[in-house]
Design a protein that fits this description.
Strand content: 15-25%
CATH topology: Rossmann fold
Radius of gyration: 19 Å
Shape: globular
Structural class: alpha/beta
CATH superfamily: NAD(P)-binding Rossmann-like Domain
Distance between the termini: 40 Å
Amino acid sequence: MTKKIGVIGCGWLGLPLAESLVAYGYEVNGTSTSSDKLGILKEKGIHPFQISLSENGISGDIDSFLESVSVLIINIPPKLRGKGPKESYFEKIKLLYAAIKKSTVRNIIFASSTAVYGDAKGEVNEKTKTIPTTQSGIQLIQCESLLKDDKELNVTIIRFGGLIGPNRHPVTMLSGRENLSGGNAPVNLIHLDDCIGIIKKLIELNHYNDVLNAVYPEHPSKKEYYTAQANKRNIAPPKYTSTGQNDKFISFCSNFLINKYRFLTDIN
């Protein structure tokens, strides 16, 4: 029987992920908060559901979405940066968790972030103590614990580095900025194609109950990398003033995929 995969959050990563899973032969349920996007999901062979999470409730037919799902991929960014009022990301995931517990879903892949390591220095692997310093990092750790501490669930946490890919690269926001600190600090990035490849490999191998860092294994300095990327795009490079040599660099999936997964796209 074909596995049914549920992808909660068909955005920049979730939509191409769901599309790739369909092409791989899986039946896929996908969610969007926008009714305008449901037609796009359907055109790509994804069963569309309009579902929205808030800290006060879930809008949409979450029970039908979760029905018969073998693997649930939770790919909802915290969105706790910037100005304006923010809803609790943890409260949203708690409500989703309650819906999961009422369903037959037992296998979960949760997209987290290396932000959970906060200001850690030097080499960081999955055993490094998490000391998040941002609200996003703090609430992601709370969500990770909520899911993985439930022994009735099989949960793998993927802590992604900075996401890059089509129409998304930090150099476009850094272009022309001056007096930036941390010029010698290493970058910790991962391409969209590799995010998709890693998730597909986890599903294929039924690999659960684990925590994995996901970043490209090469870590050029910010000054070196963003200068080269700006020059490639013919835009003004950012200018750095300090070194940051002791900043963290993330080890890629040190306890699982490093010898089993061939990278699709490097960060250059």
